[in-house]
């Protein structure tokens, strides 16, 4: 029997994260992701995912300093980023740039050092190319800033305010890891052939960019731009569902209740304290959409997913749409790396079978 999309198939054992889709729980290495998001730094949660324990002060400082040192772009990579065609989107650029980081120093077996290097450099690649696209001067990383603070600094050129750093950091922690999602599965499959960590991350980026996975947040903002005013929402959603099209930012393979990350992100948006027409419209559309999804797709348990709130958080900190999916990628790279490390501990190449439904001919 073919199980389409491997729905419900257990493809690995993992100690990295646990998702309870019915109760809406997300656990990283035993800790609730929502608690980590409000009490820990991005670097601390990286350490937790990669080493399976909370760091002590010295361990944390060592990882921080290593990542700070690794956030600078080598000259050859800047040249590549400058040469890529102008019509290449940030995700395609990121996939190409990560791939260009080479294989020699990243070769099998993967190490925590490799994981930290790739995670440290991704925000710099995004920020560098973002400035080039806009025709502004790329901002060099600042060594003493935290991972998230430095990312925002490189994007804007100014030291970010603490509430923006906290909002982005919480978002990045909440989206760092999520079990056997499509991009993580891609990373594990690539890694299972004993290929290098860079190839596994480049492949995962390719998976991440699709609209059914990480490409949804910018589609959420496109939807809200089209709706424009609250009074247009109901008709717009009804028309979309009547055409049997999907509403971006709703539904999840695993969660059949409110995504726990969505609830935390909603609190974070309030803590930024932005009174914004767009956020107000988003909250209205969310309510209306859940109501109408139940009418058009009864019993499917379709709720807001993290992508919907990702769009809202990014908006609340004035981040532009084109940065949504790359930023999601910057956080998820830490989770991919944790899975690549775990895959290597007890590796077996992934090799499922396909049921041939074609014909048999004679020449
Ligand atoms: N809008 C309308 N209908 C939907 C939606 C949606 N967003 N999501 C699911 N449905 C419907 C499907 O049409 C299907 O209906 P049917 O039973 O009449 O055929 C039913 O609900 C089940 O949907 P599936 O697509 O089979 O559910 P699956 O678990 O395979 O898909 C997915 C999950 C891909 C996330 C889906 O809900 C979707 O496409 N959502 C929109 C895109 C999106 O927001 N992606 C981001 C996901 S979060 C992340 O990746 C980080």
UniProtKB/TrEMBL annotation:
It catalyses: oxaloacetate + acetyl-CoA + H2O = citrate + CoA + H(+). One of its GO terms (molecular function) is citrate synthase activity. CDD domains: BsCS-I_like. It holds the Pfam family Citrate_synt. Pathway: Carbohydrate metabolism; tricarboxylic acid cycle. This is Citrate synthase. PANTHER family: CITRATE SYNTHASE (PTHR11739), CITRATE SYNTHASE, PEROXISOMAL (PTHR11739:SF4). SUPFAM superfamilies: Citrate synthase (SSF48256). InterPro entries: Citrate_synth-like_lrg_a-sub (IPR016142), Citrate_synth-like_sm_a-sub (IPR016143), Citrate_synthase (IPR002020), Citrate_synthase_AS (IPR019810), Citrate_synthase_bac-typ (IPR024176), Citrate_synthase_sf (IPR036969).
């Amino acid at each position: 029997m073919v199980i389409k999309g491997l729905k419900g198939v257990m493809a690995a054992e993992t100690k990295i994260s646990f998702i309870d889709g019915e109760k809406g729980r997300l656990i990283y290495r035993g800790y609730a992701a929502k608690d980590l998001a409000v009490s820990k730094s991005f670097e601390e949660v990286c350490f937790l995912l990669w080493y399976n324990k909370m760091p002590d002060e010295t361990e944390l400082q060592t990882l921080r300093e290593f990542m700070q040192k690794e956030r600078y772009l080598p000259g050859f990579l800047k040249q590549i980023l400058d040469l890529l065609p102008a019509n290449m989107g940030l995700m395609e650029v990121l996939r190409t740039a990560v791939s260009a980081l080479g294989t020699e120093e990243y070769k099998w077996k993967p190490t925590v050092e490799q994981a930290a290097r790739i995670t440290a450099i991704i925000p710099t690649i995004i920020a560098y190319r973002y400035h080039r696209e806009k025709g502004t001067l790329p901002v060099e990383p600042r060594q003493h800033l935290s991972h998230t603070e430095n990312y925002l600094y490189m994007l804007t050129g100014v030291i970010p305010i603490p509430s923006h750093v906290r909002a982005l950091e919480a978002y990045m922690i909440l989206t760092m890891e999520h079990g056997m999602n499509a991009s993580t599965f891609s990373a594990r499959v690539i890694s299972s052939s004993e290929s290098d960590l860079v190839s596994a991350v480049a492949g995962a980026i390719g998976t991440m960019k699709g609209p059914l996975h990480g490409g949804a947040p910018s589609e959420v903002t496109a939807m809200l731009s089209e709706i424009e005013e609250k009074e247009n929402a109901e008709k717009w959603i009804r028309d979309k569902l009547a055409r049997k099209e999907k509403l971006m930012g709703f539904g999840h393979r695993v969660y059949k209740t409110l995504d726990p990350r969505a609830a935390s992100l909603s609190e974070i948006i309030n803590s930024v304290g932005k009174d914004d027409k767009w956020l107000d419209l988003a909250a209205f559309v969310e309510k209306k959409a859940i109501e109408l999804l139940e009418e058009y797709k009864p019993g499917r348990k379709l709720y807001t997913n993290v992508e919907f709130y990702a769009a809202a958080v990014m908006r609340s900190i004035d981040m532009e749409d084109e940065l949504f999916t790359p930023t999601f990628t910057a956080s998820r790279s830490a989770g991919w790396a944790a899975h690549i490390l775990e895959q290597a501990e007890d590796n077996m190449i992934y090799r499922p079978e396909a049921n041939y439904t074609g014909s048999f001919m004679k020449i």
